[in-house]
Amino acid sequence: MTTSLCNFLYTGSIVWLFAYSCIVLVSVVGNTLTILAILTSRKLKTLLSNRFVLSLAISDLLVGCSIPYHMLPHYWPGMNTNKTTCLLRFTLIAFACCSSVINLLVVAADRYVAIVHPLHYSKYMTKRTSTFFIIYVWTSALGVGTALLYWNYWELNGNKCDISLAPQEYLNYLLAPLFFVIWITMLIFYIKIVKEAKGQAKRLKNAVSVTSLPGMCESSKSLQMVFLILGCFTVTWFPYFLCITIITTYGNVCVLFYEISFSMAVGNSAMNPLIYAWKNNGYRRAFLRLLSCRAPDNRRTDYITNHEPGNAHARGFDHSYNNGIAEEIGRSEATAQPCSEIDAESEHTAVSELSATGTLGSEKAEKEVDTEIV
């Protein structure tokens, strides 16, 4: 019975072939749609935040494309005996996964600045700084991923093509710290985002009656995005790095546990389009347009705020894609009415107007903000 189960669940079995095929399909389709949505829509391209989402989608697409090559040696054993093909098997997936994880951190940092320091967002997050961050992400991922090409135990490992060819120092002092530093930093960012959102809720309560706003949701509904972002990253990546820690500590680990943890880690790239893009009304409409083969609607209006880009009010809130978390949490804390289906554009317009009046408090402050943005 045990032997039959092991044969059924061994790495090259039909079970893993089906599982990885599903991950590849969802990852490639979802991230390709995200990339096309941003590149073909002027409304989405004008938002600076979407440059980071685009970079994340490209890295996740690379993860999906590198999985088949990573699995190929299980069905073509000859690749295991060649050093170059074996090292490329781990290098490509390491490069793609590292770029995805670091991109997640950059997206979190962008949202942190946009929500916690909104008045300084246009000062800190410019096209130049965003380009710098994106270049940094890909350069760092390239350095981590390609390290195995010249730093490996191929000969000492008896020409065995598995994770044991990676030096323990590489796993202990490079990959593991990378995960934990990024996880802790993201945790700090999102804790501060939630605190800021609750503060915004109190300001909204004192400034204006928001019970007339449609679509007020309970706190659990509003915190959904925050929990999804950090929760999915933790659930999908933590088992893999726990497995890596066991390997470096005891020198071995259950093959089945390693494959399960690895499939969960790469599966995060299939979830990211759902979390970062598909939860946004603007992206959903762009996806529907692409799937129905309709021409893009490139009228010169901000997709989120429904204002013209030249308007100072719109410029001050053109990062409202990032402010969506704070707006949702703020609205939910202000009232406990249940959720209802409403028009997304009117909701964002109303919230933008409330934020402009409730947080600034006077016409004088409003003029100061406009001056700073210009």
Automatic annotation (TrEMBL):
GO terms for cellular component: plasma membrane. It comes from the Eukaryota. The keyword Transmembrane applies. Residues 30-276 form the G-protein coupled receptors family 1 profile domain. PROSITE patterns: G_PROTEIN_RECEP_F1_1 (PS00237), G_PROTEIN_RECEP_F1_2 (PS50262). It is found in: Cell membrane. Residues 335-374 are annotated as: Disordered. This is G-protein coupled receptors family 1 profile domain-containing protein. It is a multi-pass membrane protein. It comes from Henosepilachna vigintioctopunctata. InterPro entries: GPCR_Rhodpsn, GPCR_Rhodpsn_7TM. SMART domains: 7TM_GPCR_Srsx. Belongs to the G-protein coupled receptor 1 family. Its main location: membrane. The chain crosses the membrane at residues 14-40, 52-72, 92-113, 133-153, 173-193, 226-250, 256-278. Residues 363-374 have a biased composition (Basic and acidic residues). Keywords: Cell membrane, Disulfide bond, G-protein coupled receptor, Membrane, Receptor, Transducer, Transmembrane, Transmembrane helix. One of its GO terms (molecular function) is G protein-coupled receptor activity.
